Amino acid sequence: MGFYSVLEKWKNFNFENYFSHVTDNDVLESIEKDNLDEFDFLNLLAPIAKNHLEKMAIKSNLIKQQYFGNVISLYIPIYVSNFCTNNCAYCGFSKKNHIIRKHQTIEQIEEEAKEIAKTGIDHILLLTGEAKEIDTMDYLKEAIKVLKKYFDSVSIEVMPLEEEEYRELKEAGLDGLTVYQETYNEKIYDQVHISGKKKDYHFRLNTPERGAKAGLRTVGMGPLFGLSEIKKEAFLAGLHLKYLTDKYLNTAFSISLPRINPAEGGFQPNYPLDDVTFVQFLTAFRLFQVKADINISTREVAEFRDHLMNLGITKLSAGSKTDVGGYTKNDESTCQFEISDTRSAEETIKAIENYGYQPIYKDWQQIL
């Protein structure tokens, strides 16, 4: 059952009723605690907690400084294929969309790697659509081996795999895994994942755990805000993070807060996440799980990302391209979604330094 057994315990919980009874004093008491339980986390997600965002922000920054120091780690995504066998209502790569598809050769991946390596950033995230017949295990292994020539840390965001497959990729040099549940609401998950292997809610839900069991050093996760009721999504994602962190002590876990951006297909979110609530959720995550990385991607605009640096985040993507071949521009393909922060890696690094933080190009190296 894994984490699903935790979800079952909260299945009939009346979140709105609980939030309606949270007081200012409840929120303040939860902020002051060093070790928060699930109900403290709920207090910080309650609407009334917006009255105390400044206190949450100050505590969040103090915790980040205590556990991570005055640094922000950098990574760059590389899209190598946008073919997909899933039909997902919200994704630009969905097979229903008539887009320009591209699948890079290993040689083309190496050309992209050489271009990205010029930034000096040593952490790279390999992304594909979910088409296992095209993005085979052999293809992924060869891609990882090529990227390892240029980067010390290679992570993937591809279709969910079996534990043994993650072990195979680790042997090839894989360091980490990112996988988003998209929504923890099982009914809505079924509605927005219309067809394809991604429709299997439970297989995707257990993916972070399979990655941890396979011995991957880092695992990233989170919901895609906009698909389901946002406060409940944030809470269940926090529980998922706690479950994984408590159970797998040798894996470093991170959480992201991606919001739906415009993409092919014109999907409009039914549950938008505004900036103030975004900040509330971010600081609540930091207070609830003090040792977890918090990652903010270029889905967010530059000015907003810059302001988040003082609120407890630890990772930023930089100079991102979401189209296949986006760094060398050898071929045209359709982006997965629109990037909001279009700055170069150099401009992002400069912004980090201007805010008084040290940009980290590399925070890990394998010793043979």
- Which fold does the CATH topology refer to? TIM Barrel
Under CATH at level 1, the class stands as: Alpha Beta
Query: How would you sum up the major sheet?
Result: 8 strands, parallel, barrel
Mean pLDDT: 94
Q: Any low-confidence stretches, pLDDT <50, length ≥5? A: none
Rg (CA only): 20 Å
If classified by CATH, what would the architecture be?
A: Alpha-Beta Barrel
Overall 3D geometry?
Answer: globular
Give the name of the CATH superfamily.
Aldolase class I
- Based on DSSP secondary structure assignment, what is the total number of beta strands? 11
Helix content class: 40-55%
Task: List the helices and strands in order.
Answer: HHHHHEEHEHEHEHEHHEHEHEHEHE
Q: Can you list the strand order of the major beta sheet?
A: 1-3-4-5-7-8-9-10
Number of domains: 1
Spatial gap, N to C terminus: 36 Å
Tally of individual helices: 15
Q: Structural class of the helices, strands and pairings?
A: alpha/beta
Strand residue content: 5-15%
